Amino acid sequence: MAAATTALSSSSISMLDSSLEVDKLTSEIFSILETKFLFGYEDPKLSLPQIPLQDMRSGKHVTGKVRILSIDGTAATDGVLAAKSLSHLESSLRLKSGNSNARISDFFDVVAGSGVGGILAALLFTSRGGGAPIFTADEALKFVTENRKMIFRSSSGGVLRRMFRRSKNEKKMFRKVFGESTLKDTVKAVLIPCFDLTTRSPFVFSRADAVEIDGYDFKMADVCLATSADPTVVGAIEMSSVDRQTKIAGVGGGVVMNNPTAAAITHVLNNKQEFPFCNGVEDLIVVSLGNGESDFGAGDLTSSPARRAVQIAGEGASDLVDQVVSMAFGQSRTSNYVRIQANGNGKFGKKFNNSSIGDKKNLLSLAEDMLAQKNIESVLFEGKRLAESTNLAKLEVFAGELIKEQERRKTSILPTVALKQGSPSSPRTSSATTLSTTSSY
């Protein structure tokens, strides 16, 4: 009798598992039908799949999770903390995956970067001739540390001299790096914000817009100039789209969106064409990289009051976005969302405000110290507390999660991402991109 009961229980459990899998698949199929009804596309890759019954019961994943990388704008470290975090993350991904040539872009579907974060996003996700991105994470770290004074610090002399020198030298630098590459040459979905003084509103450089509609493809060199432009030092960057149809006067992304994590999440959740099966934060893996917090009481003699005010506002907004996003993830916060940031305890800010900041070796050492810190994190209904793990340990854990997702997709029934590669003349039918020609991931 006991044996019969055990057999019956095992059979019941097996039937329940199969039922749950079929119910999940049914939900995904209805999602396809809903999307077809709302947006009216006829792409064969998103028509109802012919999935064998054995696959429904095999335990295969229906689809994967969308992986988002978000990089803050300028703060205490002028991008070095985020760049060092990316260097460690890429090294960990190479080690854990066994692929010595792995890139950051191989393990993310979306990147959003503001200010220096936008520059890092461009360096790590822009290719030439359809190949691998032009920079590794180590090369991007070297680029930021060697050029940070030109990009982020005001030079001596009057306003006109500062504007002229920045415009001439930095444009030459970015042109040398990116050549004629544009938003269409990025290998994954890219979002880089600035503030357009022409319309007095935020403007987001988006690969999806560049591919979908005329007038929204910009050269990556110009995108980097606009998102990193400090309004207190150089004013706006006058620029045009590749086809000259759209003109903007862009100032730094850190002014309007220093932490672009929320914008990236919103883009994915509302873009059913490229991310057709992503319905909530439980379908996301998000890595958000901060750039340290300043100790303004230490007295930064190199910054004007206006520049310090912009920096304070940007850092405060970044912390607020982190708190809101952390609350949105709720109980899945520890497995689906990680925030890498210095804890702002003061000693690091004083060191960064010291004249020795110009020393490259010292700067990299301080970034290593920040990664060894335990960050202050938001906890659902419990305010804030010191994290249990260091920033470096959290990067190691999430490197493993990113690789697990990469492996999970090999057995997924449906594609997680359908990144559009279509004609630039395709009609715009929604705030997200439409599907004509796609590559699936």
UniProtKB/TrEMBL annotation:
Domain PNPLA: 70-265
GO molecular function: hydrolase activity
A Pfam family reported for this protein in Swiss-Prot or TrEMBL: Patatin
Coiled coil stretches, renumbered: none
SUPFAM superfamilies hit by this protein: FabD/lysophospholipase-like
EC number in record: 3.1.1.-
Annotated stretches, region: Disordered: 418-441
Residue ranges, compositional bias (Low complexity): 423-441
Superkingdom of the organism of origin: Eukaryota
Keywords annotated in UniProt: Hydrolase, Lipid degradation, Lipid metabolism
Keyword S-adenosyl-L-methionine assigned: no
GO terms, biological process: lipid catabolic process
Claim: Lipid metabolism is one of the keywords in the record: yes
Known function: Lipolytic acyl hydrolase (LAH).
Domain notes: The nitrogen atoms of the two glycine residues in the GGXR motif define the oxyanion hole, and stabilize the oxyanion that forms during the nucleophilic attack by the catalytic serine during substrate cleavage.
Family according to the record: Belongs to the patatin family.
Protein name, as recorded: Patatin
Organism: Camellia sinensis var. sinensis
